[in-house]
């Protein structure tokens, strides 16, 4: 968390991927859906969150004890989270903060496929530490918690009523600069598509309390509801007001909330009575110091409660209440036109439409999608193909047998197979080649 109150700027970039799928729009505002039962969301493993914290500590230890923005430790932290999310099926983008950041470095943005991108719910945390230490509570805790929630969402692969995006911000400790850069990059349309932003900065303070940003607002309701279901009686996060990345979104007119467990402010006697811990002592006595490290500066109980509250909020705001649909049949692939190459070595792509019967979940939210398939070379009697324009969760293979080297006017049979959600479908069509 940034030490002092910072002014932030407006407007926001939504990351439009190379591919757009048409999905059913979902009407209603952020607070409109009725809260599903608390049990609807998965129980987030605090051990998994702590494993990520252990990895962030190892990264810091191997890089001069810090994960400061722009340092080798920060770069390695970005790479660690990026790979985990890519492996889980996220569309992940590094956004270079090239202006306004004291240390030129990257934000990391991850989109879970599916849901109405016109109604996006966003969860974020800053990934950088101060120079003095590894920043395990500030803010490895928030970064690891939203990361494990992202992985849990991917593993559950539920139906989505809204789109979910995660962000890990750089250069927060120098003035909320990474999140400002992101927010300032968005058009007004992209900004309005973000229906709520949730920030998590220091959620495992050893003498912590239970604080919610903008606690009386509609956007804060699921966070507040979850902690109230644990009889925690959360309070407004006064200490953190204007001091973390939610402020960048708030200044852009985006409804914002989040969890925090406190920084250098001292716990009151009343707070000690209802939450335990030590009165008149800092919530985090290692705030912005070298001792903010794993595992000594982590409150497992607070971390677990925050991670589960994040999951509840994701499910409350963006996940459908019905069961995940089962595949009604295998996907099919069919040519929309007979592909032909030009006389150039690489040829031209043919278009194949992949159809998803019953909108099965393995196709990540679309019912049909056009894919370009291109013959790229011929070796030993086999045509080699490449497919472009694939969304996450879909793979395409294409094979064609030939005799010798393709010659002018040759027409060959090509089999294209689409695989998604554990099911496959194939189609065969003619491919005319003028030579490589």
Please name the defining characteristics of this protein.
436 residues; alpha+beta; 9 helices; 15 strands
Could you walk me through the main structural features you see in this protein, from its secondary elements to its overall organization?
The structure is a single chain. This protein is of the alpha+beta class. The protein has nine helices and 15 strands. The protein has an eight-stranded mixed sheet with strand order 1-2-4-3-5-8-6-7. A seven-stranded antiparallel sheet has the order 9-10-11-12-13-14-15, with no helix packed on it. Helix 3 (136-156) packs across helix 9 (300-318). The radius of gyration is 24 Å and the shape is globular.
Summarize the structure.
The protein has 436 residues and is of the alpha+beta class.
Number of helices: 9
Largest sheet: 8 strands, mixed
Radius of gyration: 24 Å
Strand order of the largest sheet: 1-2-4-3-5-8-6-7
Strand content: 15-25%
Shape verdict? globular
Number of strands: 15
What is the succession of H and E elements? HHEEEHEHHEEHEHEHHEEEEEEE
**Helix percent band:** 25-40%
Sheet/helix structural class? alpha+beta
Report how far apart the termini are: 58 Å
Average of per-residue pLDDT values: 78
Instruction: Give the low-confidence spans.
Output: 4-39, 322-349, 356-369
Could you outline the blueprint of secondary structure elements for this entry?
Blueprint: H1 46-61, H2 72-88, E1 91-97, E2 105-112, E3 120-126, H3 136-156, E4 163-169, H4 177-185, H5 188-193, E5 194-200, E6 211-212, H6 221-229, E7 235-236, H7 246-250, E8 256-260, H8 269-275, H9 300-318, E9 332-335, E10 350-355, E11 368-379, E12 382-388, E13 394-401, E14 410-420, E15 423-433
Parallel strand pairs: 3-4, 3-5, 5-8, 6-7
Antiparallel strand pairs: 1-2, 2-4, 6-8, 9-10, 10-11, 11-12, 12-13, 13-14, 14-15
């Amino acid at each position: 968390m940034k030490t002092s109150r910072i002014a932030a700027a407006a407007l926001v970039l939504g990351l439009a991927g190379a591919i757009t799928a048409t999905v059913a729009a979902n009407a209603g505002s952020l607070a409109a859906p009725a809260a599903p039962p608390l049990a609807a969301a998965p129980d987030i493993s605090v051990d998994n969150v702590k494993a990520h914290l252990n990895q962030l500590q190892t990264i810091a230890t191997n890089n001069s004890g810090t994960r400061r923005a722009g340092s080798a430790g920060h770069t390695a932290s970005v790479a660690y989270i990026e790979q985990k999310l890519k492996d889980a099926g996220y569309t992940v983008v590094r956004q270079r903060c090239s202006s306004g950041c004291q240390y030129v470095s990257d934000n990391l943005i991850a989109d879970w496929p599916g849901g109405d991108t016109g109604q996006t719910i966003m969860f974020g945390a800053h990934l950088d530490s101060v120079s003095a230490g590894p920043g395990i509570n500030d803010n490895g805790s928030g970064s690891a918690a939203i990361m494990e929630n992202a992985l849990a969402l991917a593993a559950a692969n539920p139906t989505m009523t809204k789109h979910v995006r995660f962000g890990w911000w750089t250069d927060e400790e120098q003035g909320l600069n990474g999140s400002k850069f992101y927010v300032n990059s968005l058009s007004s349309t992209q900004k309005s598509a973000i229906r709520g932003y949730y920030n998590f900065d220091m959620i495992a303070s050893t003498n912590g309390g239970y604080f919610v940003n903008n606690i009386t607002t509609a956007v804060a309701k699921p966070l507040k509801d979850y902690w109230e279901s644990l009889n925690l009686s959360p309070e407004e996060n006064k200490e953190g007001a204007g001091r973390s990345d939610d402020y960048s979104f708030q200044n852009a007119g985006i409804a914002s909330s989040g969890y925090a467990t406190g920084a250098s402010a001292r716990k009151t006697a009343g707070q000690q009575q209802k939450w335990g811990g030590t009165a008149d002592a800092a919530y985090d006595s290692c705030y912005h110091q070298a001792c903010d490290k794993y595992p000594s500066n982590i409150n497992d109980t607070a971390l677990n409660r925050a991670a589960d509250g994040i999951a509840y909020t994701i499910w409350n705001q963006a996940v459908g209440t019905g069961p995940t649909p089962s595949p009604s049949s295998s996907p099919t692939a069919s040519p929309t036109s007979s592909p032909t190459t030009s006389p150039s070595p690489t040829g031209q792509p043919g278009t194949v439409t992949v159809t998803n019967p019953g909108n099965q979940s393995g196709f990540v939210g679309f019912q049909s999608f056009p894919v370009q398939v291109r013959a790229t070379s011929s070796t030993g009697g086999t045509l080699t193909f490449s497919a472009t324009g694939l969304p996450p969760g879909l793979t395409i293979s294409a094979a064609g047998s030939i005799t010798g080297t393709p010659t002018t006017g040759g027409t060959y049979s090509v089999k294209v197979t689409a695989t998604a959600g554990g099911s496959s479908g194939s189609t065969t069509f003619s491919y005319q080649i003028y030579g490589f």
